[in-house]
């Protein structure tokens, strides 16, 4: 299934699927050289490829985490394994569900800054389920349903318009029909650490998002006292607005 996703999004995404080797470009003095990107639910790490390509060409060492999506602990562990391989300061970035993961995993001493992209940002004791219930109802969250195994999916009929309205329809429909499920255990697990309380934090708000309401994103950013950037994109803005997202990550790489 992951191979299918990779071939499907290749129309708009190019580059290495996992870790992209750094090029010879010279980075700004004092910048964090390492970027670790954490994907959200229902898709895989290839969702980060356009951003990864931009950053790699500029000389950053970029790693794409492959979340198992089986539990919060499993995804945090995958992220911590990626962080353990970094040499020096690292910017940790999360999209959607990935925001929950980086909130828990981001207390690693190597992490110099956090970037949330259309992402959930829980406080200590909060779960994704709690955040979804307390925030404004959206077309996307209303379409999330469990199967008989307890795995969560977005209704494939709703997915294209709710998640990826600004992607080509064929790609959005293919992603809808080949989703990677998020286990309900991950949905219900609270974080016991909020790394954003001690790290420079940035937030990219997607103003046309129909999964996480823009109002909720602004609330998260305000609670974290994050530096914010707005893009006129859907929940898939990390693809369509990859240049703007990459620019925020570069700014985070210079944070102190």
| The top level CATH class name | Alpha Beta
Low-confidence runs: 1-24
- Gyration radius over CA: 16 Å
What strand line-up does the widest sheet have? Answer: 1-3-2-4-5-9-10
Written description of the protein model:
The protein has one domain (2-12, 50-253): Alpha/Beta hydrolase fold, catalytic domain (Rossmann fold), CATH 3.40.50. It has 256 residues and is of the alpha/beta class. It starts with a helix and ends with a helix. It is built from 12 helices and 10 strands. It has helices at residues 2-8, 49-57, 72-84, 98-105, 128-134, 139-142, 159-163, 169-177, 184-188, 214-224, 237-240, 242-253; strands at residues 19-20, 34-38, 61-65, 90-95, 111-117, 144-146, 151-154, 182-183, 201-206, 227-231.
How is this fold's topology laid out?
Blueprint: H1 2-8, E1 19-20, E2 34-38, H2 49-57, E3 61-65, H3 72-84, E4 90-95, H4 98-105, E5 111-117, H5 128-134, H6 139-142, E6 144-146, E7 151-154, H7 159-163, H8 169-177, E8 182-183, H9 184-188, E9 201-206, H10 214-224, E10 227-231, H11 237-240, H12 242-253
Quick structural gist:
The chain has helices at residues 2-8, 49-57, 72-84, 98-105, 128-134, 139-142, 159-163, 169-177, 184-188, 214-224, 237-240, 242-253, and strands at 19-20, 34-38, 61-65, 90-95, 111-117, 144-146, 151-154, 182-183, 201-206, 227-231. The protein is α/β, with parallel strands linked by helices. The strands form 2 sheets. It has a 7-stranded mixed sheet with strand order 1-3-2-4-5-9-10, with helices on both faces.
